[in-house]
Every structure is written in structure tokens, then in C-alpha cells.
Amino acid sequence: MDFLDLLFDAEILDLTGVNRSTLSRWRRGLSRIPRAAARLLTLYATGDAEALLGRAWRGWRFGRDGLLYHPCWRRGFTSGELAGLFWRCQQVAGLEREVERLTAERDRWERIAWQVSPAQAIMARVNTNKGTDDEKLEDDAGRGAGRKRRSVG
Predict the structure, then answer these.
(1) Positive/negative CA dihedral, 35, 37, 43, 45
(2) How far is CA 58 from CA 47, 52, 132, 136, in A?
(3) Which of 79, 51, 84, 52 shows the shortest CA–CA distance to 65?
């Protein structure tokens, strides 16, 4: 196992809890390293998250700085940032439910408006599409709109 060459004996002994004679047999190839120990040592030596967590984590790695690195990003994630992602997902899910509720409420009010007076609802919709009240007043003032001007003086 090439990861054994990347680690000091003290690190391997500390991580696995085996005695020196077992480590010596591993290094000489006389004894097979248990799969769990091999995965742990690979993770520790290379930071390769796939070694411990499986194929879904291919390319992710743990840095010696304690951060988890995405394969396409330079900056790693702290444990606090990863925990924060959980809460952010919960927040987004709650806001999505609120949007659905408000959309349903708006649709209900629109149906009620059409039931009360279809003609008024049509006129309200037409009037909202014409522009703002200020624009209407400016248009009326610009055309004269049948108003008499007051003379000053």
C-alpha cells in the first residue's frame, strides 16, 4: 500500500491503534491491512473523501487545514459553513412553501374578483395595463383634455 509510505509510524499507530509488530507486518507485506484501516489511512494520507465516503464523493478532499474541498473550487468549506448549508436549505424550503401559499391566495382572490363583477374586473385589469396615474394625468394635461386654463394676472 503506497499510502503507508506517506505516513510516519507514529501517525499510523495513533490512527489505527495497532501495535508496532502489526505495523511492521503491514509494511513488509506479510499481513493484509484490514479494509477499514486502509480506508482511514488513505483518507488521512491523501485527504481523498472518496476513500471513506464512497464514489459519490469522488474528487472531494479533506485538506490538512481541516477544510473540505470541492473538486472545482479552490476555497474549502469549514464545518460551520457545511452546517449552515443545512439551515439555508431549510430556510429556502420554507420560503418556497410560503410562495406557494401566497400564489394560491392571490389566485383565490382573483377568482373572487371575477365572480363579484366580471365587467369591473375586466376594467380594472385594462386600467392597470394603461400606465400609472401620473402618466394618465400628464397625457390629459398635454392634450388639453377639455380643461380650461386659468389665466394668471
Answers:
(1) negative
(2) 11, 10, 56, 62
(3) 79
d(CA 78, CA 86): 13
How far apart CA 90 and CA 40 sit, in angstroms, is: 32
Q: How far apart are CA 55 and CA 134, in angstroms?
A: 62
Task: Tell me what pLDDT residue 131 has.
Answer: 57
Contact yes or no for 92/86 (Cβ under 8 A): no
The 10s digit of each residue's pLDDT in 10-58 is: 999 998 999 999 999 999 999 999 998 988 888 888 888 888 888 999 9
The CA-based diameter of the chain, rounded to the nearest angstrom, is 115
C-alpha cell, 15: 490512527
β-pair partners for 96: none
Is the full-model pTM beyond 0.85? no
DSSP letter assigned to residue 48? B
Which residues contact residue 114 at a Cβ distance below 8 angstroms, ignoring those fewer than 6 apart?
121
Query: How many residues would you count in the chain?
Result: 153
Per the DSSP assignment, residues forming a β-bridge with 48 are 61
DSSP H stretches of helix in the chain: 9-16, 20-28, 35-46, 50-53, 79-116, 118-130, 133-143
The answer to whether 1 touches 38, Cβ cutoff 8 Å, is: yes
